[in-house]
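Researcher: We are triaging several targets before committing to wet-lab work. For this one, the compound of interest is nicotinamide-adenine-dinucleotide. I'm pasting the protein sequence and the ligand SMILES. What I need is the predicted three-dimensional arrangement of the protein with the ligand bound, expressed as structure tokens, so it can go straight into our comparison scripts without reformatting.
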Amino acid sequence: MAAPSKRLVQRSRVRSHRSEEGPSTVGVVGMGLMGTSIAACLLGAGHCVVCIEIDPEKRRTAPKRLLHLLNEAHARGLLVESGVELVKRATISAEIFDLIDAQIVVESTVESVSVKREVIAQIESAVKARTLIGTNTSAIPVTELQLGAQHPERILGLHWAEPANVTRFMEVICGKETSPASAAQAMRFARQWGKEPSLLRKDIRGFITNRIMYAMMREAFFLVEEGYATVADVDRSLRNDLGSWITFAGPFRFMDLTGIPAYATVMKNLLPELNRSTSVPRLMKKVVSSGARGVSNAKGFYRYTPAQATRWEELFMNFSHEIREVATRYPEDVGDRAAVKPAIKKERRKVRK
Ligand SMILES: NC(=O)c1ccc[n+]([C@@H]2O[C@H](COP(=O)([O-])OP(=O)(O)OC[C@H]3O[C@@H](n4cnc5c(N)ncnc54)[C@H](O)[C@@H]3O)[C@@H](O)[C@H]2O)c1
């Protein structure tokens, strides 16, 4: 394991949420894969975290799973306090009213409108009127989850990426009813948690990354199903092309770096030929109906022995830490951000003339 650079340690020491009265309290509902790493992130940021989970087995294993994530982050220099110390600030419970003191609650239950609405209603019954409620949905429009809420203005989307205690990604999504003050407060929280958040000013299914990622996945399935390439060929190409620059630059910066007009020429001919199917790909249906859940049950698009599946999980965690370290050495803003807007405005003026 590479020793973390001094710079990384300094950057990742997020502001501690301790005041003279002690650390502030936040909540997480749903201690599955994501809820666990979200809770680890919040503990690492200095909060007391109330974790609500309905499944007794998940409640039993939650402290061990949290400790594992926190120990790993501590060993890599991402956290100042030890995992054992941090996990003492977690309360694992089935009782929603334990959320009463939370300043913000992150809902991270299953991806279902009805379940999330029901859980949000339960959270609202337990917390104070000003408590923010952030829903960690992959693609459900936040406006749909605000329907019927008592205080929809404090409900917003908080989209995290796995492992949530390591990645710097966060999308803060405003539903139709979200107040600007709630969005501003969520952005402040996100930065204090060590994220580089993006704000979606208007609600749209899939937000930024999932709209783009699913467009890519649809095309990946098309290439495989139509016999142009194998699953492994598609994976290899994307790792070595997109994978070599996407942490450094998004698509717009990448076009700036590599010459814009050629992209317009390619778009003219290629866009009409891209796949635009609106149904779940055949291969996806087949793999799902075979019971495959990926490395978590050692069955996916690739074959795994249980040991290989575990090894992939470990490698993914290792890589997530290393890529974070690399990314922090290449900040998004190198002092030229102000130049972007005027350039676009000028272009618009030209178009209007
Ligand atoms: N897995 C990812 O990489 C990822 C990334 C971004 C967003 N998300 C979104 O995050 C959410 C959670 O995903 P996950 O992968 O952690 O799912 P998961 O199935 O691992 O976890 C969901 C957890 O919620 C619990 N739960 C269900 N109903 C509950 C209730 N009423 N009260 C308390 N706990 C309840 C379940 O017992 C389970 O432990 C989903 O909406 C998903 O789309 C996932």
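Researcher: Any quick observations?
Model: The first strand starts at residue 18 and ends at 19.
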